[in-house]
Design goal:
single chain; alpha/beta; Spore Coat Polysaccharide Biosynthesis Protein SpsA, Chain A
């Protein structure tokens, strides 16, 4: 099955030098969406063999993810895998997500850090808040995830193509996971999980602060629910 790996990046030149070669060495095509970097990230990604799309200004990771999905859908691949570009996700674990999709027939396979072997040493935020955010999303979607916020996910292209119109309805520019699961659950997409490991960033710091992240996720949930209510009233 043909698989395309998608990355989104904002000033990740110090990290993609390891990530992209590992992806390509396994025989996968790689699409990187650069979200307004100023450190040479897109130029380096092209040299490393990735197909690069650029946002001229920073629009937010959520919008970059949507751009990557739309680009991957045009390739004719069978599976689209979303990964972080900062080196926290191990490309060697890509087959785990693919195998889980084949075994279960799921439309989406989510990597779970909570089920992973290194969860005992997880940061305070992940241990304290992630389960609560995941519980809220599960209640709204009917899913049974343990980790709704992990950015290491596999999507069956046929399933994603069938709900491609939803990609144009997304409202949250940054913290897209919550809105995505809410909309995809209403479209009937089925989710499974697989344990993954999570490494520390190879270089630099995340642009998502603790407080900002928490409010961002709640805002994304509110937007999705409000938009759904509006669509019901006008339909």
């Amino acid at each position: 099955m043909q698989t395309v790996i998608t990355l989104t990046a904002l000033n990740e030149a110090k990290n993609i030098g390891q990530v992209i070669p590992e992806i390509i060495s396994q025989g996968y095509a790689c699409i990187l969406v650069d979200d307004g970097s100023t450190d040479g990230t897109p130029e380096l990604a092209e040299k490393l063999g990735a197909s690069v799309l650029r946002h001229c200004i920073n629009l937010g990771q959520g919008y970059a993810v949507l751009t990557s999905f739309k680009a991957a859908l045009k390739t004719g691949c069978d599976i689209i895998i979303e990964m972080d570009a900062d080196g926290q996700h191990d490309p060697a674990e890509i087959p785990r997500l693919i195998d889980r999709m084949k075994e279960t027939g799921a439309d989406i396979v989510v990597g779970s850090r909570i089920l992973g072997s290194d969860y005992d040493g997880a940061p305070f935020f992940r241990k304290t808040f992630l389960p609560h955010f995941t519980w809220i999303i599960n209640r709204l979607t009917g899913y049974h995830m343990t980790d709704a916020m992990c950015g290491f996910r596999a999507f069956k292209t046929k399933s994603l193509s069938g709900v491609a119109h939803l990609l144009d309805e997304m409202l949250e520019p940054q913290y897209i996971a919550a809105e995505m699961f809410i909309r995809f659950s209403r479209a009937g997409l089925r989710v499974e999980e697989v344990p993954i490991k999570l490494s520390e960033r190879k270089s630099g710091q995340s642009y998502k602060g603790l407080v900002r992240y928490g409010f961002g996720v709640l805002k994304a949930i509110s937007k999705a629910l409000a938009d759904n209510g509006h669509r019901k009233k006008t339909s």
